[in-house]
Amino acid sequence: MSKVHTGSCRCGLISAEMRTEPFLRSYCHCRDCRKQTGAPLMAFIAWRETEIAWFGTPKTFRSGGVERSFCEHCGSQIGYRDDLLPGDLYFALGFMDEPERYPPTLHAFEKRRLPFVHLDDGLPRLDGFSVERQPEQRN
Question: In this predicted model, what pLDDT tens digit does every residue of 99-112 receive, in sequence order?
Answer without folding.
Answer: 999 999 999 999 99
